[in-house]
Amino acid sequence: MMVSWIQGFFNGMNVMRASSGKLAVEPPNGQAMNEFIDRYCSGKPKSSILDASIELYVSTERKTGR
C-alpha cells in the first residue's frame, strides 16, 4: 500500500511539473522505493511518509537531471 501511495504522490508532483512545462520524473520501482523509505525512516524515525516521499522525489529528480 505504501508503494501505491508514493506512486500517487509522484503522479501528483508530475502534474504540477507538467503545468510548468517540465518533464515528468519517473518513480523508482517498488523495491527501490521501499528500500529508500526504510533507510530514510530508520535515520529519521519521527518523519512522516510525506517527508520521505518528498525526499525520494527530489533525489530522483536530481539523479535524472529533470
How would you describe what is shown here?
The mean pLDDT is 93. This protein starts with a helix and ends with a helix. The longest helix has 18 residues, at 2-19. The radius of gyration is 12 Å and the shape is elongated. It has 66 residues and is mainly α. The chain has helices at 2-19, 30-43, 49-64.
Note the overall shape: elongated
Helix content: over 70%
Q: Kindly state the number of beta strands.
A: 0
Estimate the mean pLDDT confidence.
93
Structural class: mainly alpha
Oligomerization: single chain
Tally of contiguous helical segments:
3
For the biggest sheet, the summary is: none
Tell me the Rg in angstroms. 12 Å
Name the helix and strand elements from N-terminus to C-terminus, one letter apiece. Answer: HHH
Which percent band covers the strand fraction?
Answer: under 5%
The end-to-end span amounts to 27 Å
List the defining traits of the structure above.
66 residues; mainly alpha; 73% helix; 0% strand
Condensed summary:
This protein is mainly α and about 70 residues long.
Please write out the topology:
Elements: H1 2-19, H2 30-43, H3 49-64
Helix pairs in contact: 1-3, 2-3
